[in-house]
Specification:
- By secondary structure, the protein is α/β, with parallel strands linked by helices.
- Helix content is 37%, strand content 24%.
- It contains ten helices and 13 strands.
- Strands 1, 2, 3, 4, 5, 6, 7 and 8 form an eight-stranded mixed β-sheet that branches. The chain has a five-stranded antiparallel β-sheet with strand order 9-10-11-13-12, covered by helices on one side.
- A hairpin with a 2-residue loop joins β12 and β13.
- The longest helix has 21 residues.
- It is elongated.
- The protein starts with 15 loop residues before the first strand and ends with a strand.
- The N terminus is likely disordered.
Length: 315
């Protein structure tokens, strides 16, 4: 396997490189990731690794002494909500090292991701290309082809311009990130049962009371209730300011999580809303950014008929 694009002396300073690494076992995983890390360190490039915990341990052991100079993050925690990865993991690291090129290994899609989480993962991988266009950053994304389904692998081909597998490195003929962003901006399935209230700007205190009361009844602990209250308040305020002046809030329980949905008549036109650092967010994006940092998962559907944002909090 090739260590991937972005090796010393091969990549322009201001170009963005975003390959997918298709691996079948530990041997192929290490063959594709360890040289990527070592080449970065030899070139004096800051390196970060954000992969699930089991992979994190395997890779850290294999890197050896060079591991001391690498930033390590457990993606199953830091990136549990895919909407948090660009601002909270990738941009956070890259923006702290703006003086030169940086390298990141990010594995946001792994076997065990739920069907509810996956669409947000696919959209995240597509949006990376927009978020880092023109920046001197290399982000290598491993994909476990032995454990992921055909849809995930097809989406990886569409969201990464370069692919690396046992045959080497090649350009993806299926690269179409905009198509993936659009394809997963789909209406969200209706819950079997939910409590609901309508609101306008004057009713924001009632939204907070409604969310707090029902989140506790549905089993959330005090800290999670507080986080959900804050998230719902931000979304409801956005609805009042940018979504037609009013909206509807709903709560229900689903698969061991409490879900809060805020729906309004507005349309979000910025695909990176909620995924830029706060000082770069346009009006209407700061609230979603906060929600992404608070929630275990955020799902969104937006279009001419309005926007629905769902916040998932684990019990």
């Amino acid at each position: 396997m090739s260590p991937g694009p972005g090796g010393p002396g091969t990549t322009p300073r201001d170009s963005f490189v975003h390959p997918a690494l298709f691996y079948r076992d530990d041997e192929e995983y290490l063959a594709g990731t360890v040289p990527f890390i070592r080449a970065g360190r030899e070139a004096g490039e800051p390196v970060a690794v954000a992969v699930p915990g089991d992979r994190l341990r395997t890779l850290r052991d294999a890197v050896g002494r060079a591991a001391e100079d690498v930033s390590w993050l457990d993606m199953s925690e830091a990136g549990r909500n895919p909407g948090r990865i660009i601002p909270g993991v990738l941009r956070d690291f890259a923006d702290r090292h703006e003086a030169g090129r940086v390298r990141i290994i990010g594995e946001p899609v792994w076997p065990g991701r739920s069907a509810t989480e996956y669409p947000a993962c696919a959209q995240h991988e597509a949006l990376i290309n927009l978020a880092f266009e023109g920046r001197g950053v290399s982000i290598l994304c491993p994909y476990d082809v032995s454990g992921l389904d055909d849809v995930a692998i097809a989406d990886a081909r569409a969201t990464h311009p370069v692919l690396i597998d046992q045959h080497g490195e090649h350009v993806s003929g299926d690269y179409a990130p905009d198509r993936v962003i659009s394809a997963y901006n789909r209406p969200l399935p209706e819950p079997s049962a939910a409590v609901a209230m309508s609101f306008d700007l004057d009713a924001l205190p009632l939204v907070r009371e409604f969310v707090t009361r029902w989140a506790a009844r549905l089993g959330l602990g005090p800290r999670a209730v507080g986080d959900l209250e804050l998230a719902a308040n931000e979304l409801a305020a956005n609805s009042c300011l940018h979504g037609g002046g009013a909206g509807t809030a709903r709560l229900w329980s689903e698969d061991g999580q409490v879900v809060c949905e805020v729906r309004d008549a507005g349309t979000i036109t910025d695909p990176l809303a909620g995924r830029r650092p706060a000082d770069m967010s346009p009006d209407g994006g700061r609230g979603i950014l906060m929600v992404n940092h608070l929630a275990d998962l955020v799902r969104m559907h937006t279009g001419p008929d309005g926007t629905a944002v769902r916040v998932y909090m684990r019990h």
